[in-house]
């Protein structure tokens, strides 16, 4: 069962806020949410923040854009200017399960990839980044995997979201994708490129089948596939486009407590260049020790 008890929504006074509100309303209903904490930090994605807006006006604007069932869950906090550290402190202290942030499209001159990746690295919970103008559909999910524990968490989360979306947004689908490449050493084995690719694909498929053992895929149209490419983020975006997916779900590289803040270069490039929403799945609280060090404790 999909459950995000506490959802945080970061609003920054930019056009993508409206898209983020649409996803926040949808996820709050899907996930049995008990609190929707809206943090408005005007200028956090800009070099020159405007004056702090009137809290009552911001709250009214937020409420009008959320479903009626979600409105009683809203708590609003308005921060003064660019408040990156304060935002992370709120996320830690409120013990959020999910943080949602809107963003410009990757091609926009106003895009801020570095700040998005910092947010995804440091947030103590799962992060959903939604590009401007995307409609809140979430029943067709693509999950790139590398056979890690966090990839398994990403697949399980995608299945939960898809099942929760059943009957609301078309037939729920989860497509798992793993990507392999052929190194230069295949000639030493006396085979050509295509034979080497077939051999690696066979081995990768066996590893993928083992990785997926025991997953509950009931109620979801489920498919897993292998692709040969040296450009992993591009392969992910290409497949998402041709299969008309709604969202990309990827695990962070939480290899250890100290490494939990490292998303990994592949996940970061998927995030910053994606025209689709990207859900970065993290184990709740795995960056808390890092945040305590950065923010000076609780």
List keywords for this structure.
37% helix, elongated, 9 helices, Rossmann fold, alpha/beta
What do you see in this structure?
This protein has 298 residues and is α/β, with parallel strands linked by helices. It is 37% helix and 20% strand. The radius of gyration is 20 Å and the shape is elongated.
Terminal Cα span? 31 Å
Output the structural class. Answer: alpha/beta
Strand order of the largest sheet: 3-2-1-4-5-10-9-6-7-8
- Count of DSSP E strands? 10
Helix and strand sequence:
EHEHEHEHEEHEHEHEHEH
The CATH architecture can be given as 3-Layer(aba) Sandwich
Concise synopsis of the structure shown:
The protein is α/β, with parallel strands linked by helices and about 300 residues long. The protein is built from 9 helices and 10 strands.
């Amino acid at each position: 069962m999909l459950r995000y008890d506490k959802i945080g929504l970061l609003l920054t006074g930019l056009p993508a806020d409206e898209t983020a509100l649409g996803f926040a309303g949808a996820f709050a209903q899907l996930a049995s949410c008990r609190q929707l904490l809206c943090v408005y930090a005007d200028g956090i994605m800009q070099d020159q923040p405007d004056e702090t807006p009137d809290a009552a006006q911001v709250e009214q604007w937020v409420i009008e854009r959320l479903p009626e069932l979600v409105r009683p869950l809203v708590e609003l906090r308005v921060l003064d200017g660019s408040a990156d550290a304060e935002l992370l402190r709120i996320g830690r202290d409120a013990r959020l399960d999910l943080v949602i942030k809107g963003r410009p499209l990757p091609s926009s001159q106003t895009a801020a990839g570095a700040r998005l990746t910092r947010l995804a690295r440091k947030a103590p919970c799962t992060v959903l980044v939604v590009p401007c103008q995307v409609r809140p559909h979430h029943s067709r999910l693509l999950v790139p995997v590398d056979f890690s524990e966090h990839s398994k968490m990403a697949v399980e989360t995608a299945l939960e979201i898809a099942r929760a979306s059943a009957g609301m947004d078309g037939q729920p689908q989860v497509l798992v994708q793993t990507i392999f490449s052929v190194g230069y050493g295949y000639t030493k084995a006396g085979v050509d490129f295509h034979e080497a690719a077939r051999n690696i694909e066979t081995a990768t498929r066996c590893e993928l089948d083992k990785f997926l053992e025991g997953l509950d895929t009931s109620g979801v149209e489920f498919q897993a596939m292998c692709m040969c490419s040296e450009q992993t983020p591009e392969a992910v975006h290409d497949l998402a486009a041709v299969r008309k997916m709604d969202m990309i779900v990827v695990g962070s590289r939480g290899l250890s407590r100290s490494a939990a803040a490292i998303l990994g270069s592949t996940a970061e490039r998927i995030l910053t260049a994606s025209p689709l929403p990207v859900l970065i799945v993290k184990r709740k609280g795995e960056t808390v020790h890092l945040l305590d060090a950065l923010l000076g404790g609780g």
